[in-house]
Design brief:
The chain has about 775 residues and is α+β, with helices and mostly antiparallel strands. About 60% of the residues lie in helices and about 10% in strands. The N terminus and C terminus are likely disordered.
């Protein structure tokens, strides 16, 4: 039906005339109404209505006074008929369940205007969802001649029509599924508020500075903008929301995803390097320049992506804006329409975004990193993969379930929300990783039975803090540090961090003293003195002059007591041993190997030798705590150390035998790594020695064989007394590594001896075969 003036025809494409059905003696004739009969719409029904919503309409019947209208009431029938457009012509006589009708009305003509009887009919109507032809139908009778009798009268059925579209009753965000998405979006916004607060609180933290602050802000605000898309791309859209959807989707995606792409690129453009031979000032300048280059690279890529969005969107939306087709006959109005020119801009924009996603995915998967840098790569890689999967799912659902509007809306909205959360989750994860070492320290404080192992702590107490509570807190923190510092994991990563600040001597000295305590000899004492204690040493530590002089004096006394020849002989034996190891080109684990003793010592001499560096060690360890511990906890190295501690927690509930299996397997893997050159140890000539001594000590400590080994090295001291002495001076952390359940159910000494023998035989078999088959 096509509108034409105030009246509308509805049959055979004739929209100009009013139709009449004239019935005489049972015979019916359809014709265009004569001039004496007219119907017009006074208040026509709207072209579009809401399904099941009432609407009012008013129409008028006009009959010439020259016609003899008979009967009472004069208008014997008046109502509305609505026929679905697909059923064909809509006529008053049609009677099927597909037709919707209003209640019948009867009335007389109410006025005479210009020689026409006039009757105005007011009606109220509602329709189900669909497209209809609606007709206003009236009926009256014309008598034969001047007779007022109904006998022989002609019945006239008169109708006019109009098209009407009845749409699903719908409001903006009025569906239940839309309200569900809005609730999830609200949770998303709370999450972003938390991230912004986290960023402000940790504004000066190293992990915020290293990630380029403005790039992190772009990522978070991109998540906020992209989340807002669900408020515009919904089941009820208008011209305005179509344009807002395009703008927010393009800009939000750029700000959310481009920082992830940039971070993935950094793993290729700025691979971590260790500058061991660079002086302090030059190394700091190199680090600053690298950070500046990262910021400039990020700014160039980000600026390019923003420029593309601004140019394309400004041309697109100003000249070819998307719109909603008001005539579309669909249950939901959720699809924007684009002109051919707008489709070109949309395709170009989508192609740019898709290329960036594909390139970021390839870059993230191809990037490689080791150590603590691998954690950062894993975070970015997971974020990019999740977003890429979400994009693919949305494309599949949009194409495969195009007619299921609610399902498409749900999946698309969930994909948007998941992308925004996962695309910014890396910041929260990095913050959590920075707190890992603090959690390890808290666990250590609860697990270890902390005692004042450092007597000098009491003397330091007044200088640490002015407040008693702060002082107490600082003392507890220092005790935890002392326990953790005994771990080679902590000292190893502390050493790596100190390489960047060029103050490695304190950590190296403490590590050397701890190694010395496990095998105290005058040879090792001489090496430590020459390197760290004497003023002309290569890595002279920063200790007080009184402690330095006392240490030198005690060493001189021990040297005079034991003699210089012993040192020279032991040095020669060590050189031969290292030569044998170099020829073997592999790690050698000494389970119960006894080194030759060149001079008999006494228990008193051994005790003095063992405590030679105690004062210097405690003072240097304190310096490490004051200068390195706090920045270490917030650094990537602290995160890596904490990750190892969390990994080691898995061993807590396993038996001693099972832990021995793990130790043997780790040993095998390290040998395999060394053979395939996976250890990048070209610049570190001491790695083999450190690994050898470390694994020797670990295996002997776990199996209880270290005590017998040491007792054989120092004559005059039996193994039982030596075990008691060692248990008193052994760092608390070694004793705390076992779980409480392990302490309650330790294997017997006989079982430990059997396990030690099995492990020793396995190691010897590997040593003799040189393979990994054992």
């Amino acid at each position: 039906l096509v509108a034409s003036g105030t009246g509308h025809a509805y049959l055979q494409g004739d929209f100009e005339n009013t139709y009449c059905w004239r019935t005489i003696s049972g015979d019916q004739l359809r014709e265009v109404c004569p001039e004496e009969i007219k119907m017009i719409w006074i208040e026509p029904p709207p072209s579009t209505v809401k399904a099941d919503d009432d609407f009012d309409t008013k129409y008028q019947l006009r009959v010439s006074t020259t016609l003899n209208v008979v009967g009472y009431p004069q208008v014997s029938h008046a109502n509305l008929h609505a026929c679905p457009v697909n059923m064909g012509q809509c006529i008053p006589q049609a009677d099927t369940e597909l037709i919707t009708t209003s209640a019948e009305k009867k009335m007389n003509f109410t006025a005479i205007e210009n020689n026409f009887y006039v009757a105005d009919i007011q009606d109220n109507f509602k329709l189900p969802v669909g497209s209809f032809n609606i007709i206003a139908h009236t009926r009256f009778y014309v008598g034969n001649g001047t007779s007022n009798s109904m006998e022989g009268a002609t019945r006239y059925d008169v109708a006019i029509g109009r098209p009407i579209e009845s749409q699903q009753t719908q409001d903006y965000l009025g569906e239940t599924i839309e309200l569900f998405i809005v609730a999830l979006a609200g949770i998303d916004y709370l999450y972003f508020i938390f991230l912004l607060g986290l960023l402000v609180v940790n504004w000066n933290a190293s992990f915020v500075r290293d990630n380029i602050r403005w790039l992190t802000i772009c990522n978070i605000f991109g998540g906020i903008i992209f989340t807002t898309v669900v408020f515009f791309k919904n089941l009820y859209m208008t011209d305005v929301t179509c344009q807002l959807f395009v703008s927010f989707a393009a800009v939000g995606w750029t700000f959310l995803f481009t920082p992830l792409f940039i971070k993935a690129m950094f793993f290729h453009l700025f691979s971590p390097k260790r500058n061991k031979d660079v002086d302090e000032h030059k190394g700091a300048a190199l680090k600053a320049r690298e950070h500046q280059r990262k910021a400039m690279t990020a700014g160039a890529i980000m600026g390019l992506m923003i420029a593309i969005d601004v140019i394309v969107l400004s041309i697109w939306l100003s000249n070819y804006p998307p719109y909603i087709d008001e005539t579309q006959q669909e249950e939901y109005r959720d699809r924007c329409h684009y002109s051919s020119e707008a489709s070109i801009f949309a395709g170009f924009m989508f192609a740019i975004k898709a290329c960036v996603v594909a390139l970021a995915l390839i870059t993230a998967l191809a990037a490689k990193s080791d150590g603590h840098h691998k954690m950062a790569l894993t975070r970015i890689r997971h974020a990019i993969i999740v977003i890429a999967i979400a994009v693919c799912i949305v494309l599949i659902v949009e194409l495969a379930f195009r007619d299921d509007k609610e399902f498409v809306f749900l999946i698309r909205s969930l994909a948007i929300l998941v992308s925004t959360v996962c695309g910014t989750m890396w910041l929260y994860q990095e913050w959590q990783e920075r707190r890992m070492l603090s959690r390890v320290a808290e666990n250590a404080a609860n697990l270890y039975q902390l005692e004042d192992t450092m007597k000098s702590i009491n003397s330091m107490e007044p200088s640490i803090s002015e407040s008693y509570e702060q002082d107490k807190k600082e003392m507890a923190s220092m005790k935890v540090f002392n326990e953790l510092f005994s771990s080679s994991i902590i000292r190893g990563y502390l050493y790596r961090q100190s390489l960047e600040t060029f103050d490695t001597e304190s950590v190296e000295f403490c590590s050397a003293v701890i190694e010395f305590r496990h095998d105290p000899t005058l040879t090792r004492a001489q090496t430590i003195m020459d390197t760290f204690i004497f003023n002309n040493g290569d890595k002279c530590v920063n200790i007080s002059s009184s402690v330095r002089s006392k240490t030198e004096q005690r060493f001189e006394e021990l040297l005079n007591q034991n003699g210089h020849k012993t040192i020279e002989a032991q040095k020669e034996a060590d050189r031969e041993e290292r030569k044998d190891d170099a020829e073997a080109h592999r790690f050698i684990i000494y389970t119960n190997k006894v080194k030759p003793v060149f001079h008999k010592t006494t228990a008193e001499f051994d005790k003095k030798l063992l405590k030679l560096f105690d004062a210097a060690f405690m003072e240097t360890r304190r310096l490490v705590y004051l200068n390195n511990w706090r920045p270490f906890r917030e650094s990537d190295y602290g995160v890596a150390a904490a990750a190892w501690f969390e990994w080691l927690e898995y061993m807590t509930d396993y038996s001693l035998e099972e832990k021995t299996w793990v130790a043997e397997d780790i040993l095998r893997r390290i040998r395999a790594d060394q053979k395939t050159s996976k250890f990048e140890n070209k610049g570190d000539t001491n790695i083999g020695e450190r690994a050898r001594t470390g694994f020797m000590r670990a295996s002997q400590a776990n199996l209880g064989s270290r005590h017998s080994s040491k007792s054989s090295r120092i004559p005059g001291v039996d193994s039982r007394s030596m075990r008691q002495t060692n248990s008193k001076r052994e760092p608390q952390s070694f004793r705390g590594l076992s779980s409480m359940s392990d302490r309650q159910s330790q294997p017997s000494m006989a079982s430990q001896a059997v396990l030690a023998g099995q492990f020793a035989r396995a190691v010897k078999a590997v040593e003799s075969s040189g393979s990994e088959k054992v």
